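Weekly puzzle thread! Below is a chain. First person to post its structure in token form gets bragging rights.
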Amino acid sequence: MPGRNVRDLRAVVIGLGGMGRRHLAALDAAEVRVAGVCDMNLAVAQELAASRPDRPLAAGDWRELLPGADLVCIATNGPSHHEMVLAAAEAKVPYVLCEKPMGTSGAKTREMAAACEAAGTRLAVNLCRRFLTRCLLFRQAVRDARSIGRPRRFWGLIGGGGVGCVGLHYFDYAAWLFDARPVWVSAELTESPAPNVRGAQFCDPGGQVSVGFACADGWRFTGDFELSEDVPRASRCLVVGTEGVAEFDDFTPSPAGSASASARPANQRHTAKTRLVQPEPVALEHGPALDIVQATRDCILDLLGPHAHPTVDAGIESVDVVLGAHLSSRQGGARVPLPLKGAGLALDVAIT
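Winning reply:
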């Protein structure tokens, strides 16, 4: 939609839970007009619409809002994304922002991507850590050749929350930090998870997941993710590099403990790695703590801009990791090659 100002666009938000309301705040911050809101509980949509100065149309059926929409923001749970994205593409909606997980099977995510490409619909997946200021600063720091060197290990202490709902963010984050892609996954998931807080129809256990990543130049590293349900939620990530170590926490307010790094001095990097060399601190910019509205706003503006950053492939790859983790756990923790192929593409799990 070249030449149109974002203020002229008509946006629709489907799903008015916590994330849907963040989408609304992000649209307001981006100065995109909200023309419609939808929730399966029509009264919720009507109440919210009445509270807004722009008085958007309220609906209980999302299909009513697709005609005339320029941007559809899908903020519902994972199992509904496939149908909604396909319908938006069929309706020739120019822009679609889909919450993660992109879908609940490898086959579905690929069908969604293909449908949007065929229809000329620009699709984005809200992998918000790609747009958080603190994450962007950390990415810049760890990719600096003068910093910690090439990655060897990514360790994430994430805690309970599910491999699909929470873990997926960090599988993608590890890949994005170094422009890598997941090439295998091994996992031991909780056999009898606690009831899902979003409803008994969802299946999103925690567990321990290891992922192999490959960079474009062939360099490989491994990510280990602690997602056990009996571990408190956290957001601590450690990157072990060939020259040093960097740690990151996107929850902690700046500057205490949010990001730190140490590495071999530049004049000692020729010394054999078997010899102990005193590391020195590496200066890192911290940035503000986790702000999902800011990240979603920037994701929306990126989607609407002339050169959107690709998130669809990342959305597919991150779902492949989650579904591959389920396959691995069923096979006693065996490595599952990625991307998914054959029968693996058909596995459908109601992740959130």
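Puzzle host: Confirmed. Bonus trivia for everyone else. The chain has eight helices and 15 strands.
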